[in-house]
Amino acid sequence: MKKLYLVRHAKSDWEHKHLRDNERPLNERGLREAPEMAQFILKNKKLKPDLIISSTANRAYHTALIFANILGYQLDKIIISNKIYEGGVKGIMQLIQSVDNNVSDLILFGHNPDFTTLAEAFSSKQIGEMVTCSVAALSFEVSKWADIQENNGKLLWYEKLK
């Protein structure tokens, strides 16, 4: 069985107009909510990732660092992939399908609308727009990541902060 966790980055800061989109940092709310959600996931879902992959965007990577620290994952083991930022749904799917089969629990940190599209396509469940710092957990009855495709996953849970 493979488990995939899609985490939409925490709330980002739009005040720095001179920054490119992928350079935008987390804002105060994002810096507050990311540890809150990570603590909730650790306490209530007992999540221990085998692999964390983040978008190249600053806001996603910073969210990944916060989660990794709280979940006890080595920060220097986080992989950064442009496929999450620029690859669209197809690129993210290729990334997932290329993950080493020794990995059971994979967390991706990225963006909408791609993460909502993937969560709904994998599970055939409507979750609505994934809000910032929300997490969709999916399971797949497969032994290889390459076998993951649309409609062969199950939505285990979807959590967002109140």
| Overall mean confidence score, pLDDT | 96
Beta-strand content bin: 15-25%
Helix and strand element order: EHEHEHHEHEE
Count of individual domains: 1
Task: Please compute the radius of gyration using only Cα atoms.
Answer: 15 Å
Provide the CATH top-level class.
Alpha Beta
Number of separate helices: 5
Textual characterization of the structure:
The protein has 162 residues and is of the alpha/beta class. It has one domain (2-159): Rossmann fold (3-Layer(aba) Sandwich), CATH 3.40.50. The protein has helices at 28-45, 58-71, 82-86, 88-97, 114-123; strands at residues 2-8, 51-55, 79-81, 105-110, 135-140, 153-159. The mean pLDDT is 96.
Q: How is the secondary structure organized here?
A:
Layout: E1 2-8, H1 28-45, E2 51-55, H2 58-71, E3 79-81, H3 82-86, H4 88-97, E4 105-110, H5 114-123, E5 135-140, E6 153-159
Parallel strand pairs: 1-4, 2-3, 2-4
Antiparallel strand pairs: 1-5, 5-6
Helix pairs in contact: 1-2, 4-5
Short key terms for the protein model shown above:
Rossmann fold; six-stranded mixed β-sheet; 162 residues; 35% helix; alpha/beta; single chain
Task: Give a short summary of the structure.
The chain has 162 residues and is α/β, with parallel strands linked by helices. It has a single domain (2-159), classed as Phosphoglycerate mutase-like (Rossmann fold). The protein is built from 5 helices and 6 strands.
